[in-house]
Amino acid sequence: MSASPSPSHGQINTDLLRPLLKTSWKFYAVVTILGGIVVTALVSWLSQMFYGFGISGIRWPVYWGFYVTSFVFWIGISHAGTLISAILRLVDAGWRRPVTRCAEVITVFALMIGAMFPIIHLGRPWLAFWLIPYPSERLIWPNFRSPLVWDFFAINTYLTGSLLFLLLPMIPDFAVVRDKSTGLRRRVYTLLALGWRGTPKQWHRLESAMAIMAIAIVPVAVSVHTIVSFDFSMAPVPMWQSTIFGPYFVAGAIFSGIAGLLIAMAILRRVLHLEQYLHPIHFENLGKLLLVMALLWGYFVFNERLVTYYGNEPSEMAVFWRTQRESFAPLYWTMVTGNFVLPLVIMGIKRFRTITGCVIASLGVVVGMWLERFLIIVPSLGHKYLPYSYGIYRPQPVEIIIAGATFAAMTLLYVLFVKIVPIISIWELKAGEHQPPDTTHPAAEERRLREQHS
Amino acid sequence: MKAVYALYPDGHSAQQALSRLQAAGVHDRDITIQSAQPMENFEFGHRDKATWMWWIACGGGLIGMASAVGLTWLTEVSWPINVGGLPIFAWWPNLIITFELTMLGAILATVITLVVTARLGRGSTIYDAEVSDGKILVGVVNPSESAVADLEAALTAPPGAQLKKI
Fold it and tell me: Between chains, do A145 and B90 touch, taking CB under 8 Å as contact?
């Protein structure tokens, strides 16, 4: 297949700055609808603060419900961006250029949303500052042996690193917007561009900084979800105390992150008309990655289940059967279908590995991964070691509204971001001269070369 | 005259202009080059490449690590709490805090080094908005009046040059 001519610098500027410089009524309509949903969630949260935690379904013995499920889910989704972007930068994958910023934005916003849940879950959020490990004479903190304090350090390090990892390559693009705009917008972007001129020294320093941060951010990303898994595996609860939880959570996080990224890319491509930049090959490559992660997820689940089954510890087996063939079975098998069967079938067959196929598989994975977090938390907490600690969990409207509205909040933040920052890195696209990826099959290329040499 | 510069449509012309300026006796530090993307395929794209950023990042990491050890050690010794029979100063959990603050130190040191060494926020005498459209700017700031004619000749020689003075 021959490559279509790559867009000129002017064309790239025009295409990628269009969403910033022109605003249609659709933008306001979307912001109003999403804003309305977010405000509804805020009102629900306020009512929870006012009436107390009694209006939620969280009560003894299941103290972790939708809120902690959503916390773990969103922290997982955050692995879409910085981690994938950092790895692709380190291996210098040319096809990453249009993808990286779409991904990095997801990380920052998903982390912000995820980090809100421990505060919502506190019940008295005005005491959230107790999480900060400052020396105190209340003998509560500092306790560096608590996984919750580890969360505080890990999430804040990852959020700071991800935010800077997103912001640094935006500086040259702010300079482009500065040069292409007028009036107040020009003044704002002049400030944001920090006097960027594009001298060789500035480019070298930026690229060195990005390389260092890419190296630093990968282990931080891995540590974040490992530490989130420690919130579970450090507790004596059936099916939680497992050494496999760290890598299992990290793999699940990357898995859901890729799914989130694929959905975001497909929407951006369609809504912002980025067909010239986000090619089917980008979806196919990420789709293959989704397939690998689906297999890895299946491997971890198989390990976890088999070891528990062979251990045959009564309390663990009770949770095991609750999820597999009793009350939670419908959710469990939906999770398996969404996380394993669907991506395996759709991404495993080349002709289904289209943009639509990727979106369908990704939606399955997002649903499946949310259920996975739920099924780790609720069945175990509702069926601990002794019968006196058995209980059920019924999510109440306040929790459903808040957990559901986070999807609207994520979309709203993304829409607003796209309005103020080019969603594809302009300078990186230009640096790569944006050749549409060669989709020639390796065997065909090999044959061509053989014929050429014979 | 504050500056004389020319805009070029491609890296080859910009490289030629640079070589001519150097041949005319202009020192490297007096020549300004600006582009809309890194130009690593050209010699001028490799100017000012040497940096201590990697070492500074390591230094930042060490400071972060020392801060973490200090924070955990001092606070645990000052406010001892018995948690599940763990030692008051427990290395294993403290390693997590140490790791996170080490990485945070490295990241922050990198960003500070970038801002300082790339002279962000301090602007420059020459700039042309056409750089954003893909033009490459090569110029000299504060040239002496006697040298302007030679500089103009050097800058206009490469094909596609668009001379400007400010």
Answer: yes
Whether the CB-CB separation of A372 and A252 falls below 8 Å is answered with yes
Residues B54, A168: C-beta atoms closer than 8 Å: no
CATH topology of domain B3-48+125-165: Alpha-Beta Plaits (3.30.70)
CA atoms lying within 13 Å on the CB side of residue A121: 22
Q: What is the pLDDT of residues A30-41, one digit of tens each?
A: 999 999 999 999
Any idea what the Cα angle at residue A261 is, between residues A194 and B104, rounded to 5°? Answer: 50
In this prediction, residue A1 has a pLDDT band, given cuts at 50, 70 and 90, of very low
Closest partner residue to A195 among B96, B108, B121, by Cβ? B121
Please state, as a whole number, how many other Cβ atoms lie within 10 Å of the Cβ of residue B33: 26
Q: Which residue has the tokens 């397939």?
A: A291
Eight-state DSSP code of residue B44: G
User: Which residues are paired to B8 by β-bridges?
Assistant: B136
Q: Give the global pTM.
A: 0.89
Q: Is A323 helix (H, G, I), strand (E, B) or coil?
A: helix
- Which residue spans of chain B are classified as CATH 3.30.70? 3-48+125-165
Q: Is there a contact between A194 and B78 if contact means CB atoms under 8 Å apart?
A: no
pLDDT digit string, tens, across residues B93-145: 999 999 999 999 999 999 999 999 998 877 677 889 999 988 999 999 888 88
CA dist A365 → A222, A252, A352, A376, B62 (Å): 20, 10, 16, 16, 40
Q: In chain A, positions 408-427, which contact chain B (CB-CB < 8 Å)?
A: 427
Q: List the one residue out of A293, A382, A266 whose CA is nearest residue A76.
A: A293
| Element spanning A307, H or E | helix A280-311
Chain A contact set for B119 (CB, 8 A) = 195, 201-202
Q: Which residues of A touch B64 (CB under 8 A)?
A: none
* pLDDT, position A436: 44
Query: Any chain B CB within 8 A of the CB of A438?
Result: no
pLDDT over 90 percentage in chain B: 51
Q: What values do phi and psi take at A432, rounded to 5? A: -85, 5
CA distance A44 to B87: 43
A 10 A CB-CB count for A438 gives 10
CB contact under 8 Å between B103 and A220, yes or no, is yes
Domains located in chain A, CATH noted: 24-436 (1.20.1630.10)
Among the partner residues A137, A154, A206, nearest to B100 by beta-carbon distance: A154
Chain B residues close to A197, C-beta within 8 Å? 34, 123-124, 127, 131
The alpha-helical segments, DSSP class H, found in chain B are 11-23, 53-78, 91-117, 148-156
Cα distance between residue A347 and residue A354, in whole Å: 9
- With both helix axes pointing from N to C terminus, report the angle between A397-420 and A66-77 in degrees, rounded to the nearest 10: 20
- Which residue in B53, B75, B110 is closest to A142 by CB distance? B75
Q: Residue A3: which pLDDT band, with cuts at 50, 70 and 90?
A: very low
Numbers of helices and strands, H then E, in chain B: 4, 4
Query: In chain A, positions 167-186, which contact chain B (CB-CB < 8 Å)?
Result: 168, 171-172, 175-176, 179-180
Q: What is the largest CA-CA distance in chain A?
A: 83
